[in-house]
Structure formats: structure tokens, C-alpha cells
Specification:
about 525 residues; alpha/beta; Rossmann fold; 3 domains; six-stranded parallel beta sheet; 21 helices
Length: about 525
């Protein structure tokens, strides 16, 4: 193979580990990487318009495929912009790999002023599971392998690597002997072994579930996503208890699943929903996350008995009252306790109907305050199939999705957490479309959120994406006309959506923007 640069070695290792998509904005310090990618037709490089959009797209691509994607940015200022976008992967528990060049290795820690250098590893520390600096050419494969392994193990999340520019451009011999010694075996990064848990703990949990009639299952941490326990859906259905999903696990069940009660957001945002949760005699928590923690704060001292199941022991809550913790993977745990669901007595059936009925009432109350949004979402939901992928962004749009998509069928639903950077939905949806170009991906968003990342539509048009965008514009007719003109100028096809209609979907290699305006409907 002759001599190769550090950039070529990086790309060789990424592809060896199954990475297919890289999202980046052009930077001179990464030229050796770009050169290597240009010679790899089996890898796709997507050039974005803003550094923050790169990790957002990588998150969407990773979420839909289950395969880690890479986000790259330039040294210094590029890193600062990228960090905010990486929050999408952090909130959705997605194994995105962030890579950034650094100043020369002999000018780091402490930095000698050069190339806008800064302590990049420290900037990424709060929102990554693991990060490192690659100081030596020979360590590129092992540290890339480690980053992929750390990102995917236990509770998934992003990882980051800093690579000094001299290491990226350094050239060394890469013969078969060196290759066999420094390249890790292909695709060995995913930890797939079962963790059944301590037998006594699982048995105690099984007995508690068997003796409880009013169980609510809370699912978080992106459980059920591709690449992260996708079989959990069948086990949750077999348990035959009402299931509430957090934003990070939205879409792992849909209206076709008898046990799916509702998105947790609809219950936790209303007093009636909180009171119903307090009425339960057991909460089964599978993968605690921020949204479930927020629910605890609202429940106050009225917490029912709880069982917490975690693959990551560090996430276990050991100081909560009325809590029993089990360190096990959810599929193994649910497989063991499914026999507890065989006794589905009248009380459990009535409880499931009550929880689902409460969700319907909460949605009706929400719809009374926003009848046009209700009818709009019902029309969209009626046209969905189990092949559809939905991305929902914008505070009002997210609330409507909680309420009016609960009975819809779809392949996957991604709800953007309102804590994320506004406008994450568009690049996230683009990443999902890149990951599965033949699938029908629809972004549902409000005008404000869409406009935050509007420039990325140039990338969507340049790549010929059949992305459908439903844009809800609460403004005047003149404001709607300006929105239409801007989207048309960026290369989108335009259609207008009326209440009760299903959107027209993109088919011609251009994004389709379906505009809905309250005042004209």
C-alpha cells in the first residue's frame, strides 16, 4: 500500500469500522482527510453550510441507520460552532463521532498562539461520553476504535477526537505487517453481549410486577432505536402494560401497538396526567433520562414504587425511596419477566384503557385551544404509513405531535427536545434522508424553527433530496408570501396545505415545502 498520511489512515480506520457518512465544512487543516475520502466511493462526504449543522445531520443519519456517523469541523472557531450542534446527539443518546484537527502537537497544552488554537478537548468534555487527543500517527486506529466503542456501549452518546494537524499530514509506511498490527478487526466496536442482571434482583422485580395491577412503563435514553435494542418493542407489547416514551425514545412504538399509551410529554405537562401517574402502584423505568428526572420533580413526594432497569450502572438511582434498581440490559430483563404479564386480569385491562383514555382526553383538551392545529395534524396522521419517518421541531409543533400523532402509524418518529438548539429539525431530517435516501422523510416544523437553519436547504437541493417539509406559518398572508419566495429561491418545490389534507411528498429530487397558514385556512 506504500506510504499514507494520517488523514488516509483515519479514513481507512473509519471505513474498516463500518462508518459510511461524514458531515463537514471545508477547512484546510483537514485536506488530507478530504483527499482520502475522495478516493473512497463507498463513503459519502456531505458539505454543510454551517459547522453546527454537521453534527445535527450526523445525529439524524445515525438515528435512522443505527450506524455511527462522523462530524468534522475546523480548529478553534469551527469547534465552538460545532459544540452547540452536537447537543442533538447528546440529548438523543446517539453515537456520533466528532473529529477536529488541532494545532501542531508541539504547540498544544499549553497552547502557543497559532491557528485559533484552544483547549478543544475541554470544550467537548461536558457533552461527550469520551474524548481524547491523538498525539501519534500510530495511535489513530486504536483511538478511533476506542471512540466508536465508547460511543456505542451502554447508554450511547457522542465521542470526540482531537488530531493535531502535523499528525494528519504525517506520512509513514503502511505495509501489510503494519496494517495487521495497528488496524483493529473490522466492526468489533459494538458491545452486543447480554447482561441478564443478578438473578435475585430480577426475581424480586418480577414478583413486584406480578403483584401490581396499575403499572406504567417509562422508556427513555433512545431505547428501541436502530442499533440500540431494537427488539424492545416486541417485549414491551408482550408486557401488556401502558407505555409512555420520552422524547429521546419517541417513535419506538406507535398507534398500532396496543400497549403504547402516549408520549410522556403530554402527561407530564398537565395536572391530570401527573395525577394519573401518581395513581399507579408501580413505575417501571427503562433507561432514565432528563425528561423522566423532570417528571420526578413534578411528582414531588408522591412517587409510587419504582423499578429502574439500566444497562449503565452509573445511571442507577440508589438514594430514591421506594426504588428497586436492576443492572441489566432491557431486552434480557423484559424477556425474563414477560411471564408476569400472562396474568392479565380485569384490573390490568381496565388500567391500560384508563391510561390510554386519559391520553385521549388530554389531547382533546389541547385540541380545543388549537382546533386548526388539531385538524391539520389529524389530516397528516391519516396519510401516514409504517414506511414514514417523521421529524418534529418547534415548541408548538412538538406539543401538537404529542397530542395528535398518538394513534398514527409510522416507521419512526423523532421529536426534537425543546432544550435543544432551535432549528435542529431541518439538518436532523436531512441526515435521516441521507442515511436512508429511499425512505419518505417528513419534517414538521414551525416557520421560526425552520428559518434558523434555512441555509442548509441549499445542501438538500444540491444533493437532490426528496425531503418533505410541512411548515406551519402563523403570520399574515404577506408573511406567508415572503416565506414562499424564500423557499422557492432556495430551490424547493412549493405547495399549500389545507386543514384535513395530507401533504404532497417530494418525488422529483427537490425538497417539497408544504406551507400551512392559520389565517388563510
Amino acid at each position: 500500500m506504500g506510504k499514507i498520511t494520517g488523514g488516509e489512515l483515519l479514513v481507512e480506520t473509519l471505513r474498516n469500522q463500518g462508518v459510511l457518512n461524514v458531515f463537514s465544512i471545508i477547512g484546510g487543516q483537514m485536506c488530507s482527510i478530504y483527499d482520502a475520502l475522495s478516493r473512497r466511493p463507498d463513503m459519502k462526504l456531505v458539505t454543510v453550510r454551517n459547522e453546527a449543522a454537521a453534527p445535527m445531520m450526523a445525529a439524524g443519519c445515525t438515528a435512522i441507520t443505527g450506524i455511527p456517523s462522523v462530524s468534522m469541523c475546523t480548529v478553534g472557531a469551527g469547534v465552538v460552532y460545532e459544540v452547540a450542534g452536537l447537543m442533538a446527539a447528546w440529548y438523543h443518546y446517539l453515537p456520533v463521532i466528532s473529529i477536529a484537527p488541532q494545532v501542531q502537537s508541539w504547540k498544544m497544552k499549553p497552547h502557543q498562539e497559532n491557528l485559533q488554537g484552544c483547549n478543544q478537548d475541554e470544550i467537548f468534555y461536558p457533552i461527550t461520553k469520551w474524548n481524547a487527543i491523538v498525539y501519534h500517527w500510530e495511535r489513530i486506529p486504536s483511538l478511533v476504535n476506542r471512540a466508536l466503542r465508547e460511543a456505542q456501549a451502554n447508554s450511547p452518546g457522542p465521542a470526540h477526537l482531537d488530531i493535531p494537524v502535523d499528525i494528519l499530514f504525517q506520512t509513514k509506511k503502511f505495509n501489510d505487517h503494519v496494517k495487521s498490527n495497528i488496524l483493529p478487526p473490522a466492526a468489533n466496536t459494538r458491545v452486543t453481549g447480554a447482561l441478564p442482571g443478578v438473578k435475585e434482583d430480577v426475581e424480586k422485580a418480577r414478583e413486584a410486577i406480578h403483584n401490581s395491577g396499575k403499572i406504567i412503563v417509562l422508556v427513555g435514553q433512545g431505547m428501541g432505536r436502530p442499533g440500540h435494542y431494537p427488539k424492545i418493542r416486541d417485549h414491551l407489547k408482550n408486557l401488556r402494560c401502558p407505555v409512555l416514551t420520552s422524547d429521546s425514545s419517541s417513535g419506538i412504538m406507535n398507534g398500532g401497538d396496543g400497549s403504547y399509551a402516549e408520549a410522556l410529554g403530554l402527561f407530564s405537562s398537565s395536572e391530570k396526567g401527573i395525577e394519573l401517574i401518581k395513581e399507579s402502584d408501580l413505575l417501571l423505568i427503562i433507561g432514565i433520562d432528563d425528561q423522566i428526572h423532570d417528571l420526578f420533580a413534578k411528582l414531588g413526594n408522591d412517587l409510587p414504587s419504582m423499578i429502574q432497569v439500566e444497562i449503565d450502572p452509573s445511571a442507577l438511582l440508589v438514594t430514591r425511596p421506594n426504588l428497586f434498581s436492576v443492572n441489566a440490559d432491557p431486552v434480557s430483563f423484559l424477556s425474563t419477566i414477560e411471564q408476569s404479564a400472562e396474568k392479565v386480569d380485569r384490573l390490568r385491562k381496565e388500567w391500560l384503557l384508563k391510561v390510554k383514555g386519559t391520553g385521549d382526553k388530554l389531547a382533546e383538551e389541547f385540541g380545543e385551544n388549537s382546533p386548526q392545529t388539531r385538524d391539520l395534524f389529524k389530516g397528516i396522521a391519516a396519510g401516514l404509513t409504517e414506511d414514514d419517518v417523521l421529524v418534529v421541531d418547534g415548541a408548538g409543533t412538538v406539543e401538537a405531535a404529542y397530542a395528535f400523532l398518538r394513534h398514527a402509524k409510522y416507521r419512526n418518529l423523532f421529536i426534537m427536545n425543546t432544550r435543544e438548539m432551535s432549528g435542529t429539525g431541518l439538518p436532523f431530517a436531512m441526515g435521516a434522508q441521507i442515511g436512508m435516501p429511499r425512505e419518505r422523510v417528513t419534517l414538521m416544523t414551525d416557520k421560526d424553527s425552520l428559518c434558523r437553519r434555512l441555509q442548509e436547504l441549499q445542501t438538500a437541493c444540491g444533493l437532490g433530496m426528496n425531503l418533505t417539509i410541512v411548515c406551519i406559518d402563523p403570520g399574515t398572508q404577506n408573511a406567508l408570501a415572503r416565506t414562499e419566495a424564500i423557499l422557492d429561491g432556495l430551490g424547493c418545490e412549493i405547495s399549500h396545505l389545507k386543514v384535513g389534507e395530507s401533504p404532497q411528498h417530494a418525488k422529483s429530487g427537490r425538497p417539497m415545502a408544504c406551507l400551512f397558514n392559520y389565517q388563510s385556512s
